[in-house]
Structure formats: C-alpha cells, structure tokens
Amino acid sequence: MAVYTEVSNDDIAAFLAEYEIGQALSFKGIAEGVENTNYLLIAERATFIVTLYEKRVRPEDLPFFLGLIEHLAERGVACPRPVHGRDGKVLRSLCGRPAAITTFLPGIWHHRPEPRHCALLGEALAGMHLTSADFPLRRANSLSVLGWRPLYEALNGRADELLEGMSGELDGELRRTETDWPEGLPAGVIHGDLFPDNVFFERDRLSGLIDFYFACNDFFAYDLAICLNAWCFEPDGSFNITKARHLLSAYSRVRGFSADELAALPLLARGAALRFLLTRLYDWFNHADGVLVKPHDPMEFYRILRFHQGVTGPGAYGLDQAA
Amino acid sequence: MAVYTEVSNDDIAAFLAEYEIGQALSFKGIAEGVENTNYLLIAERATFIVTLYEKRVRPEDLPFFLGLIEHLAERGVACPRPVHGRDGKVLRSLCGRPAAITTFLPGIWHHRPEPRHCALLGEALAGMHLTSADFPLRRANSLSVLGWRPLYEALNGRADELLEGMSGELDGELRRTETDWPEGLPAGVIHGDLFPDNVFFERDRLSGLIDFYFACNDFFAYDLAICLNAWCFEPDGSFNITKARHLLSAYSRVRGFSADELAALPLLARGAALRFLLTRLYDWFNHADGVLVKPHDPMEFYRILRFHQGVTGPGAYGLDQAA
Predict the structure, then answer these.
(1) Do B9 and A106 touch (CB under 8 A)?
(2) What is the mean pLDDT of residues A67-83?
(3) Domain limits at B20?
(4) Residues A161 and A247 both lie in one domain
C-alpha cells in the first residue's frame, strides 16, 4: 500500500518504448497492492497499471502469476491482462525491479460489502476456479498448513505480548490442524488473498479481481474459506450468516460442492483464520521501523479463529446439503 | 506523499452526490502532494483529484488557496480548477476533513529537469505572478525571514548532530539574513514551493502547476529564488548555470526584473536555501515514528546554502543586466 520505488520520467519513457501503447500522459504512484509498487499510467492508447515487484515477490514466481492472469483474462474472467511488449514479453525490468504492465480495471472496492456483493464474489470465485483448470503451470502453496509452524516458531512466544496465553493456544490449534487437515479435496489454482480490497465493483457488477500474487495450487474450498473470513465478519467481530449464505450458495451454483468439501469447510475456515493470524502476528512483531505500511491488527483473526472453533458443521455458515 | 485518510465507497458516493460530475468509476489513493491525502477520481463526466486536507493545512487558509487556483485557472494559468458543488461551494467535508475536488491535469513531472524545462518554468512562473495581481485575498508568508528564527530555536542545537558546528553557522546566517533582508521589492502572490514534483509537462509543453498550499504574499523574486534552488542544482550538488540562465531569462521576458530585484537575488537565494534547510532539519528531528513520509535530506540545502554564500552578484546565476 505504498510506493517503494520512485520511477523517473526518463525511466518510464524508456520502458514504454518497448510497448505499443504510446507515451505517458500521466503517471502516478497509487496506494494499492500488498507488497508491490503500483503506478496508474494514462498512456495515449488507454489506461494501465505498471507494477514493480518488490522484495516479497520471488521473481521465479512471476511467470506463474502473469501467465495465470493472462489465461484467466483471455477466458473472460474479470482480471487485469498483462500487456505484451514489442518483443512479445510481458515481464521486463524497471528501476532494477521486475516489472509488468497490465490493463486497468474500472471499479471501486467495498469497505463494507453487502450480501449481494458476497454473492457476486462467490460466483466470480467459482468461475475463476473452473477457468484455471487447464492452466498448465503449478505453484505450491508455501502458506498452507505445513508453512504455518515455521511462522509460529519465528514468533518465539511473543503472541503472549498481545494476549496472555495466546502462544500456547496457537500451538494446540496448530497441532490439531496439522493432524486433521483434509486430503484429496477438489483442487486447482486458488487466489489465496481475495479480501474486499482485491475485488472491484462497478454499480451492480463485479468488474475485477486483482492482486494474484498469492495465487497457488490448493483446495478450492480453502480459497472459499479465506473469503468467508475476509467478507462475512462485521467490524465488531460478529459473523454475518446472511453474507456467508450468499457467498457459498452463489459459489455452489457455478461449481457444486462435494460432500467432503462441505464437511471440511469448518476446519478449512479455522485453518484459514490461523494462517492470517500467524502472518499478521509475524508482520506485527517484525516490521522494520520506518516502513511505509502499517501492519494489520492480528486480533481480528484471533476473534475469527475463536468463532470457527465453536462451529460444529457447515450449517453454521448458512449452508445445508441442499444448497 | 501518502494516503493518511481512507475514504470508503459509501463516503465518496455521499460526497459526489453534492456535485454534478456523476458517480465514481474508479477511486484510488495517490502518492502526491506534500501533506494532504489525494485520490484520483475517474467519474462519469471526467477525471478529477479529490483532496482531503490533513493537519498541517490550516482550514482558515483554504479559501485563499482554493480561491487562488480558481482565479488563476480562469485566467489561463495551467493549474487545477476547484469544482463547485450543486450548492456553489468548493469546500466541504469528507471523513471529518475539509475536502475539495479539483480538475485533473495530465502530464508528468521531471525528476531531472533539463534547461528547456527550466525555461518553461520561468515563463509559467512569471505568468502566474502577473495573473495573481488582481487576486483580492492576502495571506502572509509565515515561512519568510521572521519565521525562521523560531524554527532554528526549536532545533535546540541538534543540527550539530548532522554536522559539527552547523548550529553556530546557522545562527550567524540567520542574523545576517535578518539584517540584510531587502524591503520594497515587487511583491504579490507567490507559489512558495515550486519544486519539480509540482510542475507537470506534456511533451514539450508545461501542462500544470500544482500544490499551492504554501502560496502567500511575498516578493516575486523570492519565488524565483526558491525555483533556482529547486531546479538548478544537480544531484551531486553542483550548480548548473545553464539551467539558471534559462529559468531567469525566460522569466524576465514575461515579467522584467527591476535593478533592485536583480541585486537582491543572491541574498534571496541564500534565504530560500536557509528556509528549506531549517524546515527540513525540523522535520528530520521531529518526525514521529511510524509516520508514512520519509523526511527529505536536510544536507542537500546545506550545500545549496554554501554555494550561495560564495556568490557575489547575479552574474553567478548566468544573468547580466541586459537579460
């Protein structure tokens, strides 16, 4: 959510010479994206986003991310489409960082999504899951269940500074999740980070999914569990079952759930809460002074985790077998 | 250079209902402006900038700033024009902050301006000075010579932490400037902060002057001295007399200098260097941990000040009486 790399006019002019989109009429750093620098570029032909990939993105993952959004956009998923240079490439270098140009998507994101937005999200997410089926590249989810314990260890018990006893609780939760995590559920490419700020709406239409830089191969239902946590809890921490029902039933109309997926949903939601709680705790205790990004409050996901611990079946999410 | 206030979609929708520019198609926080929050708004009718005025801008100064740019824009100066709401007002409130919508100016700023850009700047600055002549409001320059000593006192000798002996040097420089500061030079509304990032170019045309939030009444030649410091020194600290000659001679073709102004220029440039050195030192030692803006390096202006201390007449800036 910050501009980490300043790009001069000479830099951008030289960069744009490799494309056929004309010169820059306007070029402004924008507060968007998790860890990258983004500029809004108004060029002679159209409007674009220029992204410089900063240190948290591994360059070797970029062909996966850029290939994925191209694959999806070509098949009608509302997501940015990478722009090819004169040489055919979509990835080159700008100010010493890997960089790419993608198409600009109009729309605004909703800080407080309503049930109808959750339904549109469910529909789009299922569409994305189906559309990625024949995408040939693969990327393992380094932030799935096996990646959580190293994060926990790196915290060194400091979670207790936020809440006495949290560290022990997390250890128990981790053990349980490691033991019970499901196997063999329907899987494919998931977005992995579909929070409201990554979903644009234009009036009553979902106009774009953005920020695919956590995309990877994992269970589809785990992606849905991430959305459940990110979209269906109110600012006061309460769970909004109406939003959940809209999300899940719209999803299932496009891609129906298996019985196994449905049964696994409470544990997946619990795992998804644990994953974001751990990364937020890590960022909370490890952000350097003077960084430009305020870390998110980890306690939000502690409360979400506590909610799911009390869930006994998918009915708690408004979903019954008939959905 | 950061987004201090997050504006939700509901907030902006309610705000835009007061205007006749249609709904928001896109609304993105941008890294622009000194101390305010700016959003780029693509509305149905056109593209705009929405500015929320943060704590460093005094609300009582806003009628001056907004009135000034409206006055200038109406008379052909390339600067943002405030958009009037249905009720005729240009200033209202958004997320608890004073806020205004202004027109969007295309163009990019030059990190390393060339002599021709300095000439375009000189021409535009002189035009702005002439055009503001009949602007009826006044605002004193709180950062003119009498405002510098309080800044110096607030440093409490800490300049020595950056360079041993700097504090004493600054005291001497201040005394000299306070004693010798000129009186009675041609005066009017100055921009006061016309650094390269506040000047947009579109191909070979100057397309916009922005960020008038230091504008005030002062000597015109002092504004030019600020530009001399901001535009004519190279990254290595050397003075580029070609750029200075382009700046000053283009200016003087639009608004000719008096002999007094010309003679005062070395002292005004010295004072302008001192002013930015003092504010940068103040920000350097007083920025709160966790603020989103990296303070500028004060030493850049120490070196500029040292350069001007060695100047004996306006010829050092490439300008002779005949210009």
Answers:
(1) no
(2) 97
(3) 9-103
(4) yes
